[in-house]
Amino acid sequence: MRVVLAAAAALLFAGCAPLSGGTVAPSAPFDLLGRVLAGADGRAFSAAFRWRHEMPLNEIWLMSPTGTTLAHISSDAAGATLTTADQQEYHAFSAEGLTRRALGWALPLAQLQYWVRGEMVPDVATDVLERDARGRLVRLEQAGWSLRFTYAEGPAQSVVPRRLDLEQAGQRIRMVIDDWRERDPQ
Question: Which residue segments constitute the domains of the chain, with CATH numbers given?
């Protein structure tokens, strides 16, 4: 169970680590609800999640299909903490470091706060860039990751993605965003 929770937490840490170098402004605050499916090395994990992003604080709740909190992740400039359902705590200097320790490889933690908004990470080289007729990102290769963006269509077409598919070196992550709310900076 600990391995599953650690893997789930690591997959959802995305966006929790502060950006290195301090030259990239963090994205605007948001709350989102969604689902994640991640796989690597023949293993797969899925969960519902809530992500509250307000630099430097990020909080992520990983939830079972019935809404029970499996883990709570909190990350800020002082470090990252993962608290499991049975109240065990794991700490690391950064969410990225905790992810690397839990899984043995790092996820694009700092970049995801931009990608979930359908934005490129500023000041990071882009290898492939494709946009749709409305100018929204549909395909991106950045920071070693290949991404595909899917948007809700219809009368209220979205400028933020409804789904992100990320892939790098055999790792696959699919995030489906069910509810998105911009928040006013406090």
Answer: 2-182 (2.50.20.10)
